[in-house]
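Suppose you are handed a protein chain with no further information: no name, no annotation, nothing but its sequence. What can you learn? This example shows the usual starting point.
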Amino acid sequence: MRRRRRAPEQTLVLNIVALTDVAFLIIIFFMFSTHFARTQQSPMDLPQQRGLTAPEQALAQVVLEISKDGQLSLMGGGKLTLEEAVRAAGGAAGSAGGRAPTAELLIRADRNAAAGHVNRLAAALARAGVRNWKLATAGG
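A reasonable first move is to predict its three-dimensional structure. Written in structure tokens, the prediction is:
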């Protein structure tokens, strides 16, 4: 009786090192991109007041910040004068001159800032024809 020799079994070897590298890179990318979105705004103690929930935004958002000492800044950036802030807000938020707004204007004022600073900005925006803006609050 003759025995047949079996062909050696082939084993499949998967090298998943490259796959895990790609997975880790994707995870790191998403972690940094979500963190970057949060760091655009400077930390601020907002007034405690219940407000409207923000709808899904169709327009971009221009954020003017007022620190507790009354200093104006645009999205956590450098310091601005009142005229520069109004110019930046008016250009994006449109005005009474019939221009359609290209962005929503949001004002973030520190809870410890004097109301006079917010009133001064609101009056300057009204003089420039910007009447549609929102004041950011922390949910109460």
